[in-house]
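Here's what a typical entry looks like (Carboxy-terminal processing protease CtpB):
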Amino acid sequence: MSRRKIIFGAVVLVLVTFLTTSAGFLYLMNAWSADVVNTLKVLRALQVVKSRYVDEVPVETLVAGSIKGMVKSLNDPHSIYMDAKMYKEFMIETEGSFGGVGIVIGTKDKMLTVIAPIEGTPGEKSGIKSGDQIIKIDGQDTKDLALDEAVSKIRGPEGSQVVLTIMREQEVQDYTLTRSNIQIKTVAGKMLDNNIGYIRISMFNENTGNDFVRKLQELEKQGLKAMVLDLRDNPGGLLDESVKVASQFVPKGPVVSVVTRDGQRETHSSKLEAAKYPIAILVNGGSASASEIVAGAAQDTGVGTLIGTKTYGKGSVQTIVRLDEGSAIKLTIAKYLTPNDRSINGVGIEPDIVVQLPESRDKDVQLDKALEVLKSKM
């Protein structure tokens, strides 16, 4: 080995030793900027735990734990760290299918809450409703359970079972659900009497915008003169797909504006020359995120009448940042505003006509009201 390599190796060893001693660390804390100091603090903690903890722990486990804790410290239920398994499941769900029981969950008032059950899934068929609070999963209390951990525990192999303990209006009940492969067809529709079309969107995935356009064109060929758009229990999804949907009936102008923390603004607009026909949009407490973008745009522009109950109130935008080939962070990077610059985050959207749906649900009084409103405008 050459003398130069020996000297270089010795210098590296001294530097590493210096950085991992308290004196060296404190020196750097006084000399460098706060960002660098804090970064080194994390590295120092990693080195201490790795070298001195009573049991040997893989570095990968420590790094994943530190990232998870970092994201959790944001106190934002929509920002999460996804390991390889979670990231894979998330991408499959966005593309249109996933394994589980078919409920979309979030955190509301610090409680694990059902945003909406997905139509035709075990969750919806069992009677689980938007607004239900999940207090236990397989007997484990969810009080201190992170959202990503709850999702991971609810999902599982097709055919296996999971027990959700649900609290609804202070009444507690166990629901035993058999997991299945959830295939999501997000758009369905038909023609009702008086040439009034009905289109239901269950969530916004990669196919929703195009599927909506096809269904709308199909109804237009049948003589569509007015439309009911049902966004009840629609938990949201992809922002771009909600803009595609709204652009089919919101007249030329802003649909939604995305505003980052430094004030940068990106506005997504419709190019439609003018509204074609009257529209009534059904919403409730399970209408969230992307569905609120559509509802808010219709309400602000006056092109549609919102009927039902107040929406969920998720007015933030998330992006996926890949950390490596397996893991990623879903991070809130902006808030969105309706065309009238309303922020609905944590507030929701009040419908133009409030109609409560009775528990019996023998009759869809919200849909009936929508048909009544549309007939008066035709």
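Residues 185-377 form a domain with the 2-enoyl-CoA Hydratase; Chain A, domain 1 fold (CATH 3.90.226.10).

More examples are in the samples folder.
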